[in-house]
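pls ignore typos typing on phone
heme C + seq
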Amino acid sequence: MTLFKLAPALLLALLVGLAGCSQPSDTPAAAPGPLRFERASADPVKHGERLSQVLGCSGCHGDDLTGQDWSDAMGTLWTANLTQSAAKFSHDDLAAMITTGKWPGRALMDMPSFLYTGPAPADVDALVAYLKSLPPSGAVHPEPSMSEEFRAMQARGEWMDSPTRVAAMSDKGPPDLGEAHAFGHFIIRATCVECHGMDLAGGKEAMEDEGNPPPDLRIVGSYSAEGFAALMRTGTAAGGREVGLMSKVARRRYANFTDAEVAAVRAYLVELANRDL
Ligand code: HEC
Ligand code: HEC
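k done
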């Protein structure tokens, strides 16, 4: 389709979008199509950098994104050196790896692509633009090589590679609370479910040997707007408490939320608690 065939109103919207001056608040709340994070910066590289923080890429790929060694008795596995991957792969291949877990020619292991299926292509493009802005540095790590025992586990379905997990989780997410809470639902599906679970009911075991297990997020029903913003921005929970892994995750990741994103996440969770779903 050429630009000439587009309706004038859509063409105008496109041009405004390209000029980078459309304000999120100007777009109708019920805008159709995939959701995106708030565009705090019109510069795709800066937007992508913020998304990489919110989505926690450095938690696994390392602070400088040059990769970490996760090898153990189960086999050799490195989280990739993303500065080198960005130089090696095309934009489209990188976008596909992030959202589908498929590497050209093989399945990725333990890359949580199932979390990243929601964001609109424009957000994924910004993430890739950010990765491609990084100068390649550090070593290229070996590809995974897993033990017999691990492959047997995988064959029994006790462990899923990234594309299999994407497929298994594609129709799963926290309860849908309707259009008014679609933005909060979208953010939570891409971030909080990683630890608090798809149903947001939390877990039974402490994570990374630290603090308490992640609780049911309906707990946010008892948080004031200020208290919740303080947890997201500073990692300090209600009553001035330091809450282990959550405090760290908030400081690293959620301190980069915009005010509108914090408000949308809280509004969704308060509504979830009120509806008693
Ligand atoms: C829970 C840990 C974890 C998180 C969070 C994570 N990754 Fe990964 N990622 C991995 C692992 C492990 C691999 C290596 C998998 C393999 O080689 O089979 C990987 C591989 C990749 C690859 C493939 C690169 C290559 O050269 O093979 C890309 C691209 C990638 N991740 C991007 C991202 C981005 C962007 C984010 C944040 C939006 C992110 N990852 C978040 C664990 C993670
Ligand atoms: C990397 C894992 C992880 C992610 C991601 C995560 N959390 Fe948590 N969260 C935890 C853990 C673990 C705890 C329990 C901390 C403790 O008490 O030691 C927790 C506790 C909490 C609490 C309870 C604080 C209190 O009052 O005790 C709230 C509220 C919370 N998380 C909200 C969120 C929200 C909202 C998100 C997404 C924006 C999120 N969490 C993402 C791991 C995580």
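The radius of gyration is 20 Å. Residues 197 and 203 are 7 Å apart (CA to CA). more later
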